[in-house]
Amino acid sequence: MLLDKPIVQNKSTTYRSVTSKDSGLFETCARHTSRYTARSLQSIYLCDACTRALVVGAFNDRAPVFHGETFKGFCGLCNRKRNVTQRQWFVCGVCWNVVLAYQKSMAASAAVREWWANEVQPNFPNLTLEETEQVVLAAYSRKGKTKFVEAATLSMLDFVVSDSSTNPPTPLFHIEQKTGPGAIDEMTIFQLDVNDYNDIVGAVQHTNIPSYIVHVQAVQEYNFPTRQTIVKGLWWTDIATLQSHQKKIAQRRGEDKFAISYDAKAFSPIASFGSEIAKSGYKKLMARAKKLTLIE
Ligand SMILES: [Zn+2]
Ligand SMILES: [Zn+2]
Fold it and tell me: Helix/strand/coil (H, E, C) string of 40-75?
């Protein structure tokens, strides 16, 4: 389910549905579509609209098992300061990490849209930024296709920029957003999962338009008992430049995923992105990006 932005809070739609014990769903993960034992009772502060969105999008229509107190704080999903209520669900540890990451992704994509509107759009009025892959709330279920097969046919990354002076508009390049707690200036290594790399290369080959990557530095600040995501900075690179800074591929510690390490010098401060567009850097980039191949 796509989460419409901005979420409109309608005071008349107070959300207090509960999953009761009779449902037989106590101590099972709300996000796991098939029955999965999870005794951990997780707690998060959410506005009513976001609770509803999580229930429908991520929790298989399972309402919270408990609604607690309501007060002014930062919503754990939309990141806005508003009336939030404590909500509890049974959710397993793996799924809970996914849920906790939503606030960060939403804040990061809002920061990319804001940067575009304030810094880029005024100088390039013909270019439009479209968010193609909004933050998707999803339940946990096994996928049929392998990640590798998906990458080869992927046509959408997070954003696409088009020239709207033509009819129909001409897509010029993708922007893939990556979010992390670090500032590029203070990093020596930038890591990307092999799957993410393949998604980008796959989409570039499939759509025949190149891709830039924007790193969004987003940190969590605790306004107890709620927490807020704060975006501190943005940096950019392109997929070919990033690949030319590859240092090694290694298994992530304690996980079965492989990650690629790059020299963080591949990235530039976001302020220089305007000159990349001004000189149509994306045209030259496509020739370089064409030569990239998926990593198996
Ligand atoms: Zn919210
Ligand atoms: Zn789960």
Answer: CEEEEEECHHHHHHHHHHCCCCCCCCEEEEEEEEEC
The DSSP secondary-structure symbol of 158 reads S
In eight-state DSSP terms, residue 76 is: T
CA of 117 to the centre of ligand 1 (A): 23
Q: Which two tokens stand for residue 5?
A: 């932005």
- Bridge partners, 229 (sequence order): 220
Tell me the per-residue pLDDT of 124-182, one tens digit each, with 9 for 90 and over.
999 999 988 666 778 887 554 455 556 655 667 789 999 999 999 999 999 999 999 99
- Percent with pLDDT over 90 in the chain: 83
Q: Whose atoms come closest to the Cα of 31: which ligand?
A: 2
Segment 1-6 mean pLDDT: 44
Query: Cα(7) to centroid of ligand 1, in Å?
Result: 7
From CA 219, how far away is CA 231, in angstroms rounded? 6
User: In 3D, which of 30, 56, 57 has the Cα closest to residue 43?
Assistant: 30
Q: From the CA of 35, how far away is ligand 2's center (Å)?
A: 9
Q: How far apart are CA 274 and CA 271, in angstroms?
A: 7
Q: Domain 103-289, what fold?
A: Trna Endonuclease; Chain: A, domain 1 (3.40.1350)
pLDDT in tens, 76-90: 999 999 999 999 999
| Contact present, 169 and 162 (Cβ < 8 Å) | yes
Give the number of other Cβ atoms within 10 Å of residue 113's Cβ: 14
Q: Where in the chain is the domain with CATH 3.40.1350.10?
A: 103-289
